[in-house]
Design brief:
By secondary structure, the chain is of the alpha+beta class. The chain is built from 1 helix and 4 strands; from the N terminus they run βββαβ.
Length: about 70
């Protein structure tokens, strides 16, 4: 079952790294970047975290975001 997630990383996501998250929202906040979107399963979740680390970013948090009722 898919779930919306929010990932916070220290620093800014470089322009060349944004393509890896093209289906997600990217927001720069002071000293951090927030990446949010739908995660389809646990494997996808681990893949996103691995990609962030491969880009040299420190993952501060990865948390599910409650979805609004239909």
């Amino acid at each position: 079952m898919s779930m919306d997630y929010e990932f916070r990383v220290d620093g800014l996501l470089p322009e060349w790294g944004r393509d890896a998250f093209c289906d997600m929202r990217i927001e720069e906040v002071p000293a951090q970047t927030v990446i949010s979107g739908t995660v389809i399963d646990e494997s996808h979740l681990h893949g996103i975290v691995a990609q962030l680390r491969a880009l040299g970013l420190t993952v501060v948090s990865a948390r599910p975001v409650p979805q609004a009722p239909p």
